[in-house]
């Protein structure tokens, strides 16, 4: 490694001193409860800190203990997860809580082996939770620390490759102190999130600037190597709010794929040779097996998922005939507006529900 023992000791002191001065006051940092740390780390995967900070306490209020989470219905967990996205994380969290209650008497395992057997517990999550909750000397490697390590080492390779990741993990392990391991790992992530930023790091504020090989070489703006991103795909969808008297149709998505087991209005991608009205009628017939009469256009909802930007045109329709028989979804329900909030659904679907509720219901069937 590029740092000798005395340099590593100095690096640890400077980083922890900076963290003590600069750490953000986040709700999951106020105690070392492994359950709270675990929930926060799962939420923080692919979700921003401000979003998690807004939702963390409400989720914990609903499921204050690991046992409460384990005994809850999955639909209740998914409903409480709304707004955080990537719902498979919530399903894994729930399944892991049930396994901990069954196999570990409800106590979060304090060793890596049992943790790795839990659903959704990858290497980063295991090491992050155990180091913070139990002071286990385990290194972490995620987006912020990966960028920080690459700059400290002036690593020119692709950090997504196995060989470079192994070098970064070995370097991370060499830095770990004997005490305050959890704080140290959090400090590394905090530094990457607030100072050692992508593209233009703020080296003047960095407590580790003296140790940074990339800064010394003048390469901090181009390290780490970033892969060329795939182009953004743009897609148009038609969503349909179908009323039958004072109830609208919602369909439950399958267990696999995007938004597993969540509820949604019938929707379909619009092809170039199809009008919005034609797509809406087709979606009702193909997805739910019913015929509808279109009433009016309610509005537009836009959302992005990964490298995909989607524009959803929402239409209101009236049921004409046919029994609901989903062709792809698991099931369908006719529900009044008051019951919609109880069903777990994605953020775009909640916005569509708001459009529908503001638009009112269709007239009674003729």
Distinct helical segment count? 14
Basic shape? elongated
Order of helices and strands: HHHHHHHHHHHHEEEEHEEEH
- Summing up helix and strand content along with how strands pair, one would put the structural category as alpha+beta
The whole-angstrom Rg is: 25 Å
Helical coverage, percent range: 40-55%
**Strand tally:** 7
Task: Summarize the biggest pleated sheet.
Answer: 7 strands, mixed
How would you describe this structure to a colleague?
The chain is of the alpha+beta class and 366 residues long. The chain has 2 domains: 5-217, Endonuclease III, domain 1 (Orthogonal Bundle), CATH 1.10.340; 233-359, Nucleoside Triphosphate Pyrophosphohydrolase. The chain contains 14 helices and 7 strands. The protein has helices at 5-22, 34-44, 49-62, 66-71, 74-80, 88-103, 112-116, 123-134, 143-153, 162-175, 181-194, 213-217, 276-288, 347-359, and strands spanning 233-244, 247-252, 263-264, 267-269, 291-305, 308-321, 331-335. Strands 1, 2, 3, 4, 5, 6 and 7 form a 7-stranded mixed beta sheet that branches. It is elongated, with a radius of gyration of 25 Å. The termini are far apart. Residues 360-366 have low confidence and may be disordered.
